[in-house]
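Recall that a protein's primary structure is simply its ordered list of amino acids. Everything else, from secondary elements to tertiary packing, is in principle encoded there. The following example makes that idea concrete.
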Amino acid sequence: MTLLPACGGGNDDGNPHLAGGSSALALAAGGKAASIPIGIENVNDSPLKAANYRALLRFVPSSTITIDRFYFGFKLRGANCWDANNAGYGAGDGGLLRGSLVQINPTTGLPATVIATETVNACTRHNEAKAEFNDATPVLAWVNTPATLQGGTMYALIVSNAHANPAAHFFSFNMPLADTALTGPHARNELSAAATGALLSLDPREHVAWSEDSGTSWRYGSANGQYRSYMNDNDTAHPATRLPQYGFRLSNGTTLGGQPYYAYSTDCVGCTVAYANARYARTFTELGGFIASGIGVGTLTIRNTSTGAQSACTPPQGYGFRKCTLPTAVSVAVGQSYTVSSTGAVEIMKMDYSQRLLFPQVGTANGKFRAYQPNPAPGTNSRDVPSLWAGPLSPYFDS
């Protein structure tokens, strides 16, 4: 296997859910159960350098949880506390990070009552995060927003810069990117939990939005950041949409990844991903791989590592989500594991050192996210995930 630069329902705690059958929502092939577990190609920032800028991350907990922290993608390189004046992600003293956890009106999908807010100097929070991550550069930072969040309910974190001079003192809200044409419900103000086309094992109602009028109006899809983004940095034929990256610290001190991955615009050639310890029995009839360049994904193979059953197919080659129908379906029972491999190239999602420290259950057999590389590609770690999947339904979520 080789790495190349790119050319261009269960409980949130991860416990097994030994249900006897799939819910009606899963059988309808919509909602989180039908969300494919991959879909991102790179990561991009939104510098909060104006007082009226707002970044919104809408999320839906799978089950009721009590938290004291909310983690989100954050970067301030260029500020005094990190490589001062040498990058555009931050400046000056980093600004005043204000994070507000809010309820969402289920009828409009817009922010409603504020639940909790913290305001803290962004360099202070950056340094606190570095200290917690063994001096590693943090990919995510947090705000202290204690709350009990109801499962299946929409909430949002709204991030702003409360500094008196935000143009000279700022940080960036940093989120992974997906092709807008492939982003489905995450590129709009989707209100249906049963909507189709979700990515990254997200609820279809989850998204990132952006405002330049202090939250009076919100922008979605390709307009959901401080500037427009594109796949492969500058492929204007493929505008990009920022997608959520977030997590929680629960009141008992453990952490939980809501969507822990991001990406570096890197391809993985001849790679394999393992999906461990299925929480629901599934019969897989299709395979898929994601590539954001003209390199083909090649032939895709699924193997039930518990029974040895396997099948392969070759999708049409080209850019995007490349899917094919298996000549013979492959089933997995609760507790069984399987691999999906490709002979070509696919994107790879990243879990850097600080992310692995923050979310130690990601990429393990008993966490919420159980995908890993049994034989990591050079330059990656086992918890970086090649963009390969089996469908039509997830073995980990049933609604």
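Helices lie at 24-27, 122-132, 353-358. Residues 122-132 form the longest helix (11 residues).
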